[in-house]
Specification:
Blueprint: H1 2-11, H2 18-31, H3 33-52, H4 57-61, H5 67-80, H6 85-97, H7 101-104
Helix pairs in contact: 1-2, 1-3, 1-5, 2-3, 3-5, 3-6, 5-6
Length: about 110
């Protein structure tokens, strides 16, 4: 789980590395604890959703199924809907919705 949490974050900048993910996540926390927390939350929820939807463990470990959760959570909880608990709840719901197969089709 820790590996996928960090590689989800590193895949946002197109790097597949646990160390890079750790450095990026630390940088996000230094810049703003809300952004860091949103990134970590989105990564964990994204990983759990990918696992629940039957993604392969190789895909999950590489961060390919969780980086969108990181971006969604940061955008909603820390950028667009700042300042209240509803923003965090919306972020959780929309990160989960991003993994529903019917909603991912073009």
């Amino acid at each position: 789980m820790l590996r996928s949490l960090l590689t989800n974050v590193s895949e946002v900048v197109l790097v597949n590395s646990v160390r890079s993910g750790a450095l990026i996540l630390i940088g996000l926390f230094v810049a703003s604890w809300k952004v860091g927390l949103a990134a970590a939350m989105g990564s964990v929820i994204g990983t759990l959703c990918a696992w629940a939807m039957g993604e392969s463990s190789a895909t999950i470990d590489q961060g390919l199924s969780g980086y969108s959760g990181v971006l969604t959570a940061i955008a909603l909880a820390a950028v667009f809907l700042v300042g209240n608990a509803a923003a965090w709840a919306y972020a959780v719901l929309l990160v989960i919705a991003a993994y529903i197969p019917a909603l991912r089709r073009p």
